[in-house]
Structure formats: structure tokens, C-alpha cells
Amino acid sequence: MNTFTKKPLRSQAWFGKADKDGFIHRSWMKNQGLPHHLFDGRPVIGICNTWSELTPCNAHFRELAEYVKKGVYEAGGFPVEFPVMSLGESNLRPTAMLFRNLASMDVEESIRGNPIDGVILLCGCDKTTPALLMGAASCDLPTLAVSGGPMLNGRYRGQTLGSGTGVWQMSEQVRAGTMDMEQFIEAESCMNRSRGHCMTMGTASTMASMVEALGMGLPHNAAIPAVDARRQVLAHMAGRRIVEMVREDLIMSKILTREAFENAIRVNAAIGGSTNAVVHLLAIAGRIGVELKLEDWEKGSEVPCLVNLQPSGEFLMEDFYYAGGLPAVLRELGQGQLLHRDALTVNGKTIWDNVSQAECFDRKVIFPLGEPFKAKAGIAVLKGNLAPDGAVIKPSAATAALLQHRGRAVVFESVEDLHARINDENLDIDASCVMVLKGAGPKGYPGFAEVGNMPLPTKVLKQGITDMVRISDGRMSGTAYGAVVLHVAPEAAAGGTLALVRNGDMIELDVAGRRLHLDVDDAELARRRAEWKAPQAPRRGWYKLYVNSVQQANLGADLDFLVGSSGAEVPRDSH
Fold first, then answer.
1. Could you say which DSSP state residue 94 is in?
2. Three-state secondary structure along 213-276?
3. How far, rounded to the nearest angstrom, does the alpha carbon of residue 540 sit from its chain's CA centroid?
4. pTM for this one?
5. In this predicted model, what pLDDT tens digit does every residue of 76-92 receive, in sequence order?
6. What are the Cα distances from residue 103, in Å, to 81, 97, 344, 426?
7. Structural domain spans, the chain
8. CATH top-level class for 380-521?
């Protein structure tokens, strides 16, 4: 029985030609030991792999790809694995975010320029997920994302240790003198003890959850640990399903609808997800053609946090999976009318079909909607003269008493200035002050670095203080926490009001009122603006192209010429 699609596939423009070009395309592929029948018109599935030994979170992806291939072959497809730029958050300088858009270009052009009918995206570490989704969205082929899975829980001296979150906690303990360096170094191997990405609800776990919430991944994509055999089963089943998606012509734009993005925004609130999801979802929406604005994140601001995971809570992703994973959270939201139940997913079913019978097995980890872990925990969008185009804060990870605050600004002109002065006992600062960091935005760093969660001054830490209001045009790690205002737009390097803040200025933060105000009159701001000089722009290469073209945080920090899509029309012949 012929199980192949009757619709002509784009791969046949390469492999189906009985001429010189067809000979070239098939013959050179056959040097890998591929038999002729693989070119008979079956769906060709590209496996987009971000494996790299420099990206520890994705270092197991070669093995994961083999399970995808098994599923593709089993369903009658032809798998072809290809590499794209990998973005390792822990190693890549000055910040992996500088290269998110570049990696998305690699993905887009690799898909469009090759004989591919459908795509599996292997993603894990923070920026690999949005980069792959952005690039694939600009092609709009049948696409299914498979996350690599979180690490096992960290364990240190009988205590649970969360990746990332534990670093911020312990480094402050070392600076405060409550933990010695020997213990600090010992904890390194205890924190990250298996393959996989961060097991806190940081950006990697958040974006894996966004994949599932958007409908772009199979159920339980978000939380199955990387070393659990069920992660390999999920990859196998994804390989089977993508072949069916090609035959059904189930392309990304049928799944990534406005309703899907609204679901993801509410899910991000319910899981206590990373603020980085804001810029990533804005950028993905821009590629697929869905109108999504920063203000739309207010749709999640009233949604309670249901998941007791670090950095907002106690547990980790391994516990989350055993408790029922994201399907249990989605069911709670659906029952509370906080989910677009009819949103389509990659398995061809609605999101409600997938989760309506999902169970929760541990209410200490996943709370019911009626008795949430934290109320009104979604990301809040702030506006005011200090952030005319917006800024964000994650209330669930902040000290509640600081969510309404007025304090004296202590300004750091750059991250180098911060590092040079933060441990100075003579620094004129106390716990009531507002720390302000400039030059961390898309243009200023460049690349929009995760430096917004500034370390507290040593003199303050020694007083037992663990949080202060901090404001910047940068981002922070999804594993971080605190009363940290991020993504201030326009950024300082673009001439935003942030560039004009000086030591001693009074700043007002009112999260409930969604207000961020610099208490300086317009005339004085105009005088300061006249004196302001833009930083010198990069002179060549990717840095120059990036700084000249990157949009501000409130738009998703994509390159202006990449917004939108070009489809997957077969390019002209190469010979």
C-alpha cells in the first residue's frame, strides 16, 4: 500500500528530477550509503540540531536525534540531520542573546535552501528555542519542536540545589561571608550532575513550556528530564508525527495563532516563568505574522502562579514532571476559563483534547487554581517617563514590600562600572536606594545581556539585606530573582530617559499602578538630553549589522529586516 502523500513535496524539486540536476542531488547524497528508494517521493524531514560541546545543555542532542530518526523511518519518511549555530548561555560572550537573531537566520536559510518538507527542531539551552522557532516560522513548513529536557535535581550536602538560582544565592553568601570558597567550588559538581538544561524554571524550562503551551511540541515536552527514557520516547514519537504533519500540510501558521500566544502568556504566569519569554514570544509572533504587543502581557498579569518551583518557589523541574507536568497546569487553566481550548497543536488535536484528563500527583508542587501558590503573579508591564515604551518586572520573584517603592538612584554607567564599585565599602548606598544600570540593552551592550539582576553591595549584604530595587535596560537570567525592573525601553544607548538618570535622582516604582517614574522635571531632562552623546557604534561585522538593525525590547529585539516571513518557495537551481 502506498503510504506516501499525493501532494507534490518540495523535496522532489531536488530528488524527483530525471536530469542532470536530479543526478547531482541524488548521487552525492548516496555517498552516505543511502539506497535509491529513499528518493522516491517520501517526506524528507530535516532535523535541525543545536548540538555542541560548548553548549552543555544540548550536548546530548546527537543521541536524541537518533531517536527522532527512528520515528521518521518508522512512519515512512527520510530523515536528514543538519547543524545550525548553537548558543550556549554559560559560555558564549558577550551574551548569547546577541546571536539569537543570527542563529535564526541560519535556521531559516538552511531550511529554505535545502530539500526539506518538514522540520524537527532540537532545542534546549535558553536562546536555541526562540532562535529555531523564529527561523522556522519565517519558512512556515510543518514543524515540531523537541526540547532536550531539564537536568536532574542538584543535590549539595543533603539539600536540593537549583541550577542558576543556587549560583546567585551562594555567590551572595560568599560575598556576605557566610559561605567559604571551598564550599562554593564543591557545589559546582553538585549543581549540574546530569545531561540537560537548567532544572529551575529559568529561561530554558520556560521556553520548553512555551513550546508545549503554543502547541508546537507534544504533551509533556516541557518537563521530562533529559536522562529519563521517556524523553527518548518523546523524540521517537515526534519523528513519527512530523511525517504525518507533512502529509496533512499542518504548517506552523495553523498552530501559532493569536490564541496560541495568549495561551502561552497565561501559562508563563501560571508557571512563574522567565521574563525572557516576553522578548522571545514577541519576536516569534513577528515572524509568523501575529500581531502581539508588549501590552498583551497584561493578559497574564492577573493569572496566579500555580507552580512552586525555583526561583519563585521551592521545587525543581524533575519534581514538576513527577507532579503531572505542564498538562496538569493547562488543565487547571482550562477549567478556569483561562485557556483557549480550541487552539490546535502539532499532534492534530486541540490543546484541551490533550490535557482535559491530565492529573496532578503532588499539590505541594502544582497548586489548584482556586488555592494558588501566589496570586496575580504574571509579568507586569510598567510605563512612565523612565520607560515610555515599557519595562517589565516579575512580581512572583520579587520581595513584596519593594513592589511599591521610592528611593534615591545610585547609577552605574556600565557593567564594568558596576563591578568596579559594588564592593566598595565607601559606596554611597543603602537598602532604600534604587540601583540603576545603563548600557545593557540590545544596542548598548550590545546584545541585551543578562546583567539586570545586579549583585547587591557588599555593605548591604552584610546587614542581612537580600533584595533591593534594581532597574536596567538589560535582561536577567530566568533563574534569577528580586525586585528587578528589566527591558527599559527605549534603552540608554538609544537615547531613552534611562540615559539621563543621575546619582541622587528620586525614582518611584509602583507595580500595582504599573508606573515607573523619574522624579525630574521635563526642563531638566531636556537640558540633560542636549548634553547626552550616543555611544560609539561598532565598526564592522555582525556587531555592526546587529546594532544598526536591532529593534528595542518592547518589540522583541529582532532585526528590523527579519520581521515577517518569506515562506519556503523552492529556490532557483544551483547548477
1. S
2. HHCCCCCCCCCCCCCCHHHHHHHHHHHHHHHHHHHHCCCHHHHCCHHHHHHHHHHHHHCCCCCH
3. 28
4. 0.96
5. 999 999 999 999 999 99
6. 16, 10, 27, 44
7. 20-152+194-355, 154-191, 380-521
8. alpha beta
